[in-house]
Amino acid sequence: MDPTEYFVEGVMSRTELVAVDEAQPMRGSDPPQRPRSRIDDEFTAFYRAEHDGQVRRAALLVGSDEVANDIVHDVLVEVLRRWDTISHHGSYLNRGVLNGCLDRVRNDKVVAVAHRRLAAGETSSTDDVLYDVIARLPFNHRAAVVMRFYERMTEQEIAEALGCKPGSVGPWIHRALTTMRKELS
């Protein structure tokens, strides 16, 4: 069974989910069945509505589907833990995923890997070249471009997601597009 099915279908209790997240292996075969709660139903609907889009956006920001899945999963676990105390689940998830991507970019030097790939001549498609150009942008510029053109968010929504003033978003997008045009021509 796919691990996300356990997560989505509500088979795991919140306690079991915390145990798995903290790398405490569960004993036995399948987790015991339990009655579904209101939180299970609400979170399941939220998960189904948000997961795929968040993973796609995170993958564009960090350059890896696997890393994006990890980041989104970690944030969704945190959303589930705090479900009753968070008033805007979508905003909390957006900010958490962006922060996770930023941490990943800083810590793992994704940009350095992209430069090495370009230098080695390993790019084989337009998508690879575009990813490499986007990967070299400063994080805020990259996030603004992805949210604007991939997620189709307004500048106000982008500003809220990035926790900045709305007046910062337009110049970031403009600078990013100018840099991308230069590098792609």
Overview of this protein structure:
It is a single chain. The protein starts with a helix and ends with a helix. The protein folds into two domains: 1-108, no CATH class; 110-185, Arc Repressor Mutant, subunit A (Orthogonal Bundle). It has helices at residues 3-9, 14-21, 38-62, 65-81, 89-108, 110-119, 126-135, 139-150, 155-162, 166-184. The chain is mainly α. The protein is globular and about 60 Å long. Helix 2 crosses helix 4 (65-81) and helix 4 (65-81) crosses helix 5. Residues 1-6 and 19-25 have low confidence and may be disordered. Helix content is 74%, strand content 0%.
Q: What's the topology here?
A:
Blueprint: H1 3-9, H2 14-21, H3 38-62, H4 65-81, H5 89-108, H6 110-119, H7 126-135, H8 139-150, H9 155-162, H10 166-184
Q: For the terminal residues, how far apart are their CA atoms?
A: 47 Å
Count of helix runs:
10
Q: Sum up the overall morphology in one term.
A: globular
What does the radius of gyration come to? Answer: 19 Å
What share of the residues does DSSP label as strand, in percent? under 5%
Could you say which structural class the secondary elements and strand pairing correspond to? mainly alpha
Q: What is the element string, with H for helices and E for strands?
A: HHHHHHHHHH
> Percent of residues in helical segments?
over 70%
Task: Give a short overview.
The chain is mostly helical.
Feature tags:
Arc Repressor Mutant, subunit A, single chain, mainly alpha, 74% helix, disordered N terminus, globular, 185 residues
